[in-house]
Amino acid sequence: MKLLEILLNGLSMGAIYALLAVGFVLVFKSTGILNFAQGELAMIGAFLCFSFVMTYGMPYLGGFVLSLFLGALIGALIEVVFFTRMVGKPLFASIMVTVGLAGVISSIAGFIWGHDVYSIASPFTNKHLGIAGFTISSGVAYTILTSIVLLIALLIFFNRSLHGVAMRAAAEDPDTAGLMGINVNQTQMIAWAMGSSVAAVAGIFLAEQSFVRISMSHYGIQAMAAAILGGMDSVKGAIIGGAMLGIVEGLAANYLSGLAFQGFHFGDVKEVAAFAIMIIILMIRPRGIFGKEKVERV
């Protein structure tokens, strides 16, 4: 029973990593840019939901949906204001813009909300479900189930919808996609909006399990590891990579942290274990579990 509880809690955290990782992949597949501000966008989503629900007294569902809408709007604005102007510029310059955005977003959040720690009261706070004699937190169940629905919807969107195919085409060859009638700028704006909205969902779910705070943006680094582990061009890989990292972190936190070997104390190895798994798998498959090797014909 203890192991099952650890696995479910790890899967809940893995679902959050998966959502953040999918946000990375959405932007990367459509623009070729690795967005280092993804964790900060998740943090903004959590703060927006906190403000709507706790400060302005909105119902939780209303605050949740409005936060997603504003998250998508922020992502679209970022693309229009910054990255439309970066067309034709070196890719490294675009990536460094996202690094700068991460710092700017954190500073703005600190200016607006301060650096205190807050919590969001949701319908699932301090509630538990009993299933076959096993007790699970309602927040954990809510995070896992809602994330599964969202991730399945994103998989269907990318693989079955015309907009999803257009995004993939725009990322693969923007010039050819434009000649085929695809509005490349619009598809990239939609990708940023979706990536930011998914990040907001992940931030709200993370706040459900812990607290709303500026430092929660650091979880974006673990999510980036999940995206790289699964393959930066694979939505399915991001989902599996996130789930793997969440479960590995949960097992490491419970069975490895605090161990001692011949006088050496391991301490908290939760995050180290997750990155160690990533490194081992990338040594075997450099493009990630589901990453595809590009073949260039000359």
Write the layout of secondary structure elements.
Layout: H1 2-31, H2 38-55, H3 60-83, H4 91-113, E1 128-131, E2 134-137, H5 138-160, H6 162-172, H7 174-179, H8 184-209, H9 219-230, H10 235-255, E3 260-261, E4 264-265, H11 270-284
Antiparallel strand pairs: 1-2, 3-4
Structure commentary:
Helix content is 70%, strand content 4%. The chain has 298 residues and is mostly helical. The strands form 2 sheets. Strands 1-2 form a two-stranded antiparallel ribbon. A two-stranded antiparallel sheet has the order 3-4. The protein is globular and about 60 Å long. The N and C termini lie far apart (57 Å).
Q: What is the structure about, briefly put?
A:
The chain has 298 residues and is mostly helical. The chain has helices at 2-31, 38-55, 60-83, 91-113, 138-160, 162-172, 174-179, 184-209, 219-230, 235-255, 270-284, and strands spanning 128-131, 134-137, 260-261, 264-265.
